[in-house]
């Protein structure tokens, strides 16, 4: 096992998901649900 110094431990980045990735995935889901809703339940203009 290898001992790490304090500054080495602070420089380690984990596999966290950023806020932009969550926002992008949410936007795609909302868009696709709108497209599917438009095909399944069309409304007059």
Care to describe what's here?
The chain has helices spanning 6-10, 19-40. The protein is mainly alpha-helical. The chain has a domain at 15-45. The radius of gyration is 22 Å and the shape is rod-shaped.
Brief rundown of the structure:
With 45 residues, this protein is mainly alpha-helical. It has two helices and no strands.
Total strand segments: 0
Strand content: under 5%
Outline: rod-shaped
Structural class: mainly alpha
Give the N-terminus to C-terminus distance in angstroms.
68 Å
In round numbers, the mean pLDDT is: 89
Give the number of helices.
2
- Would you identify the regions where 5 or more consecutive residues have pLDDT less than 50? none
Helix content bin: 55-70%
Largest sheet: none
Rg: 22 Å
Helix-strand sequence? HH
List keywords for this structure.
45 residues, mainly alpha, single chain
Describe the secondary structure blueprint for this structure.
Elements lengths: L5 H5 L8 H22 L5
């Amino acid at each position: 096992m290898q001992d790490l110094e304090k500054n080495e431990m602070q420089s380690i980045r984990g596999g966290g998901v950023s806020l932009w990735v969550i926002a992008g995935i949410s936007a795609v889901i909302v868009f696709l649900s709108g497209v599917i809703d438009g095909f399944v339940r069309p409304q007059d203009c």
